[in-house]
Write a structure and sequence with these properties.
There is one protein chain. This protein is mainly α. It has three domains: 55 residues, no CATH class; 186 residues, no CATH class; 158 residues, no CATH class. Helices cover 70% and strands 0% of the residues. The chain has 18 helices and no strands. α13 packs across α14. It is globular and about 65 Å long.
Length: 430
Amino acid sequence: MTETSWKTKKYLSSRLLLVYSVAASVGLAMALVSIAKLALFVFGLAILIWPHVTSSKLTHQTRLTLPLNTARAVLGVLLVFTLSLFWTTAETAESVGSVAKYGKLLTILILPMLLRSKQEIVNAIAVFVLGQFFLVLSSWMLFAGLPVPWATSRTASTEYAVFSTYLDQSIMSAVTAATCWHLRDSAPGRFGKLMALVIAVICVVNVLFVMSGRTGHLVMIVLLSLALTWQLKPRYRWAVLILPLLLLGTLSVVSPKVQKRLNMAKSEVQQFSIKEGANVMTGSSSGIRLHFWIRAVQSISESPVLGSGVGSWSNEYNRLETQQNPASFKIGERGNPHQEYLLWGVQLGIPGVLLLLTFLAAVFRDTLGADQASTRAAQSVLAALAVACFFNSPIYDALIGDFFCVALGLMLALVMHTSTSASGARANQT
């Protein structure tokens, strides 16, 4: 083996091992996610730079693939949040820590640059799906009363979440189901397509009949509606407007979990309106969210142009609460209002909400131009993120945020490759 071929093989194995480790870790224990993410940022960047700073010529393709619209949006987001350090009301440790939390968005850019062929991308997505499948199987084992010694969640025995919360896990499983369905024809192996369909069904049933996450239920309903709508002829695709309502109505009858959580949400909202002005921090999940959202809107109305700076939500909430009731409950550092759009609004004002929408729009633009399956898979992940942002802060939060960044990075890598391949094929025909 020549020196050049040895270096090329080492380069390939290091690069793919890093990607596969990150793809498998998301959704598992937070410690594993953190280690894999740190390795991606440190060694991934080193792997990308190495061929360009050495005199060695690798025989393997080293051209980088980068989703340009998403790259501009991510860098813009990080720049704006960093600039807001100059006017933030948060303490230095909290504000700098919050900027670092948004740094996970760079994962979306690094992964496509590390993957150089369709086979590599498909294998990485397969590893990603298998990691999530392990999570879902573990949830089913908990549901069946079987021992799951690796489960570390505080709600493992009651809500069947394995490592995180039932809220995070139900969203991740919904995204996994959509990924398997849309990319079933690309699944590797002789029985890859069948396996993808089986995983998709297992995930759907788990989310809708086992898990209790209301946001996960909603995300699954939206993704199922998109999948059904895309199967219709174009002139019938207006059905996407009514399919979610039909699915929600059906599930509220056939799924005890969905029915229970819907009734609970209705009751919690009614109780909140009755008890308005009381200390809701000891109350229901829906009541706390509504209370947070009201305070977030108040904060935005006071600083609509610049906001209160990165990491300022906890300070803003506590300040507004103290004005109403000096003895009210105070939240800790790096909290969030359980709504990503409002969180960006509190930190950056109305321009912050527009910045988040711009980021989502940029990712959407980069999903276009590829083959149908890749585009639909990528847009399903993006739709899940956009919906989840209405009820939680999935970008800011750990684990679920890493999950979405890895999922989007893998999907955009596939989209960029298939769109490039399609362009090359059209060029060869002309």
